Amino acid sequence: MLGIDTIGVLTSGGDAPGMNAAVRSVVRAALTRGLKVFGIRRGYSGLITEDIEEMSIRSVSDIIHRGGTILYTARSHTFRTEEGMKKAVDVCGRHGIGGVVTIGGDGTFRGARDLSHRGILCVGLPGTIDNDISSSEYTIGYDTAMNTAVEMVDKIRDTSQSHERCTVVEVMGRNCGSLAVGVGVAVGATAVVVPEVQFDLERDIIATMRRTQLTGKKHFIIIVAEGVGKVNELAKEIERVTGVETRATVLGHVQRGGSPSAHDRIMASRMGVKAVELLSEGIGNQVVAVKGGRIVSYDIDKALAMDSVFDEELFTIAHEISI
Ligand code: F6P
Prior knowledge:
The structure is a single chain. The protein is α/β, with parallel strands linked by helices. About 40% of the residues lie in helices and about 20% in strands. The protein folds into two domains: about 180 residues, Rossmann fold; about 120 residues, Phosphofructokinase domain (Rossmann fold, 3-Layer(aba) Sandwich). β7, α7 and β8 form a beta-alpha-beta unit. Bound molecules: 6-O-phosphono-beta-D-fructofuranose.
């Protein structure tokens, strides 16, 4: 379907640093191509309640460096109903919106697929700190969240070292261990525990602690993915078995905030332009992705059916050099 002259942009699901840079890119690329563009607030909810505003070049000034999302975000239950979907399509019709760029994770992509199947061309951009989108090697926000977590763990390391303790740190990631593995390698953790790999306390943590104690190691950092959780129990067990005083820290939502890194700003800018290119050619039901460092796009249904790929090589490296 060619001939789209108006598009919308929304952010949905958990926010991620770099979403603003993506919104800016979409708005500017659309206006450059002569398209009218609406900002839709609070994700799909805003489509239902008609919480939308026409964007200008200046609507997205001074946001490239800001965390969060100026469009706000939400997880809409109403949108998943037939009635909610119908309202969203009606609102699009009233404003002449023929296509929508939806920025978020898998849930956002499912919404984009449903809307596309009802005649509104949608293009999804991967935006989540979890880096858990099967179709893309990279998601906007991952680099910033990883750097935030690394900064926090570096601080924890100071006190852990001073007290000669073991510290178990939980990082976000929902059911995906990508953030944990990245952080684990970057902080030189003693062990990384992720949902993708079966874990054995004695083999994977205790034995490593005992072995490294023999060469003089006195404090330990264990990174645990949110999908494994139970860090308080794990800390108690480590202390009971090893006799090393152990504390647990859950980093939490601090990982979702902050000014996006240069990498996230650049990826968001590249992906935003790609999404507008697709829509301006009348191509919808797509997700934008990174493959081999290049920006590509896939049919949403195919993208959602792709198997997730866990970076076993990085996971192995994390443990191989933790000696
Ligand atoms: O998807 C991003 C994420 O931060 C996950 O890492 C985490 O599991 C979830 O969102 C937390 O969601 P909420 O904002 O509802 O606490």
